[in-house]
Amino acid sequence: MLSKLEFEQQQDEGRLIWEASKSVASLPPLGRVLSAVFNAEWRSVEKALCSHDVRAQQGSVGRALISLLGHVENGLTSGGSLEQMFCPMLEHMVKSKDQGNRKKIVGIFRWTFAETKHGLLLATSLAAIVGSLKVDHRVKLGWCILVRELVEREFVLYRSSPNGQTDEELTGLVTPLMCFSKCVHPLVRIACNESSKQGKQKAPTRLTMAAADCVTVITKGLISDPPVTPTKSTPDKLEKNEERVLVSPTSRSSNASGRVSFISEEAKASTSGRETENVLKEQGARALWDSLDDIILLVTELQEWNEQARPLHARGLRQVLMRLNHLANYRESLETRSKDAGSIQVGVSVLAACWRQYSSLILLEDRNLVLNPDPVIQHWFGALQYWTQAAQEMDATVTRRADEMRGYALTCLALTLGRLDPRRLEEVLKDIEPDLLQSLMSQVREANIEVVDMAMAILRSLLFRSSGVNSKMEEIVPVLMDMLDTRDSAARAVVHLVAEFLASNPTSPELEKVLARLDSEDPLQRRNGLDVLTELVAVSTKSKDTVDTPLSRTIAAHLFDRLGDEELTNRVEASALFAKLDPTFTLAQLVRLVYSPDARKRSAASSAVQAVLCNHVDQCRTVTVLLDCIRDLMAEVASADRTRGSSKGGDSLDLDRVLGLVATWASKVQDWELLIEVLLDKMYKEASNPVIPRFLSHISGQLADLPHLVFPQIHQRMHDQPRMSEEVLSNISKNEDALAELLFQRLSPLLVLRILPLKAFNHSSSKDLYGGMLDEAISGESQDQGRISTITGLLLERMCNVWELDDVRKIAAELTGRLLPNAMLSAVSAALEEAAHNVNTVTAKACLFSLCTSLMIRGKETLEHPLLAQVRKSLSSIILWSLNSLKSAKEISKTQHGCIDCYAAMICAEVGTLGLVSQLPSKPVQSDQKMKKLIEEIPEGEWRSHANGKQESQKRWEILCSVVQCVLGSQPFPPISATLGLSEVEKGRGDVQLAPEVYRVCMANVLISSAQKISASARPAYAQAVIPPIMNFIQTSSASKLRGACFQVLFTSVYHLKGLAIVPFAADLLNLSISTIGGRFSIEERTAGTRLLASLLASEDSVLEKIAPYIEDAQRAVATVANMDSSPQLRALCEQLLGCMTRSD
């Protein structure tokens, strides 16, 4: 394209003259013509264009213009593209800052439109360029500038052409301007898509500004009268003669909207073609209506461009956008019902009337308006005054129109004043400002929201402009303050002005007046005062996160009283404001108010604390301040409790009132990384602070979901702590304070682990928690290497270290039980086996506690682990420990009780996962059956689960069967000896004895313990498996001590299993107790039988119904013992029982 501009300079002027006289076929080359035009001076081109007949000009410029016109007409008539001709010309317009180039090209195109007979084709060809993907931004910029100039100044564009000059593609286009109206959509797309990004804000470029203005001019031209008829005056003179004519709003003329008019008196005098003009106007208005969506997009873009630099102008654009959206909604409502031409015409007329004015005021580049805005401002100020006075004089039927016109005038004032720079604005306001302010203040008192909002926007812009702010505000603030005495539209409107003034003048005495209203007895004044403070906080936090500390404390001091306000809305608004104030000053008082006896204050304070937690920007600081406030309040309450002589020591403070608010905050936290670091660091530094663990427990769910943040912090802390030894313990035990501090330091990371839910320990991939221990457990490799480098290894070390502090060891054992069985059972079983061999009660108790925790929490997962068999061997070995000395007897007894609890936990886990079971054989094994396993005597198919009806493996009942058989004496000693680690040869000997009596009594205690712990759903299964064989053993056994233990098993089963689990055996149990009470048994057994009877009589109605037929027998047996027995203790017990039975009868 540009290569056509590169040609040799014309040397022979005579040759050009000769070529110009030829036909179209003999025209000079286009490149040579364009070069002549481009190289010509603007004055030469101007002179040629202004001559009476350009074709008669004999100069080179004139001939070049004639040749250019010939090329244009040739291209138009032949149907070819003129892009190769127009693009160089458009680019030449903007390639330099020389205005001569712009004037020259614009003048040539105006002349071409005036001279050619193919105006529609020329406009169509020109319109095709802007939507082309081939042209660059410079060409598009030149196009926008050119078309704007043409639409604003060229009369021919508004003139209809004879039908003979249109082709099929142009059938619906009557004027060249209508051709350009088809470019609105691509121009709007350019304006929206080609803007530059400055952060989140859009900024216009030279191209987008030109495109936006071009759209505005085109759409305005569709509904405007054409400019003056072309004359031979120069373009400069034409510009000087043009002026903006504004019509009074009361005028009835068609030009009553105050638009820019270029119509000369001569043009007005011409009335020919009036009907054609009316048709063209209707078509233009309808084309504007069809472009409504594009206009809305354009105004939206303009508003975004002006939001930062020209806020008042942007506010006016927002009002324009609102009106356009109303029209769009109106159009959509028409589409949902049958279209009515009259209804559509209403929308078309309203849009045309509004857009005539708005389009004149939203141009980005408008020299006339910027240089001489006074007529426009005076016009709309006069319109505002007129309609204000009219609203007062007219009746209610005209008031709505008056409100609309005032809103219309205020919008136009905002658009005009908002585009002026500070210096120009001061010049404009020099004479009219007092009257304008007074008029605006009168609008503020109106009821129409649109009028009030626009008046306040203009007031704010004028009062807070860069010069004279304080003086203007000091004059008007007293008036604004008076408006806060009532609750009306005026009061709501001035809130923002007063707040913005106070934000820039925090020491102003007006602040005290606002605070005085906040404390007023008048609820309306309190509400207004609170609104001002709310807006003040919002204004003060626009550029920073929180209000400055002095102002923050002043506001907070008055807001505390509003938490008890009678009005709910006041309490809610006051609560929300605390989020923007300094938490170091507000949270302490808010926490105290949470415990206020006043329910309103308590509720509002809770909401305020929640608002501070959720919305304050510095969450780390807020949380630490909250923890300190709770700690300090807890210390105060503890001191008061000690003064009153109470032993609660601060426990009377219900921490959940405050900490219960944490859950809502935790669910909204997005970034936990820094928060977790701060919280855990505070936990370690203030290890004795009881508030922090409680706080962490309320966010344990969130912590469990962030193992990659929590576990590394805990691991590092535990790793940095020294290993406890005899030397360390002996040195520090002399100082109680140091010992307490050491205890808290070692407990703090464990307490964090303790508050985590179980799911946190299921993260098997966590290197800090498990490392490679799970992989080693699966592969069977040794876990000793590197174990200490994980949390699991450190927990095991603290649990098994005999020199560790007792509280630390206990919590470490509990936490070890929460770990995955594959990670902990290998080490725990090995430690327990070693402790059993060495009679190490300290390590044994820790391992037992860990195993019980794992069984109760993990259940089946731990129960079915292969290493549990090794654990049972160690349990049996510990149960058979001998009491070597009185000193160690107590610890050995505690350890053995731990084994009993561990066995009970196994049974609970086993029965709890299997459902109902069949009854075990109750007949004890005779001497010739000792080597025969009892489990093999159970008929095949008898072990069935009632849940699914499928055969259950006997192995799943191994622990329960083993314990019951051991108590009954049905369990041969070889299986028991196997748990003690005897050889296979010893296990195969036929003369092995049953388990020792002390072991069998311990197994009975296992049944007692498991009966106390068994879950409700597993009670029937447990009763079915235990009660029948135990009853039969009591009837057949001669071992008094074992029978007494079995009676205790039955008593505990009746007392704890209860209800339906006991009903099937209730009658047998009652008969057994009756026979025992009056039989030849020891005092201990008869006493146990009496207690069993009492337990049955105190059972639920279902059990009493079952034993009702035998109550009289029981009563006689009890009466006999009460009257004749030699044991005073048994007689007394039976007398009490008999008295209860007699009263119940």
TrEMBL record:
InterPro entries: ARM-like, ARM-type_fold. Residues 225-260 are annotated as: Disordered. PANTHER family: ARM REPEAT SUPERFAMILY PROTEIN (PTHR37743). Residues 234-245 have a biased composition (Basic and acidic residues). This is Uncharacterized protein. It comes from the Eukaryota. SUPFAM superfamilies: ARM repeat. Residues 248-258 have a biased composition (Polar residues).
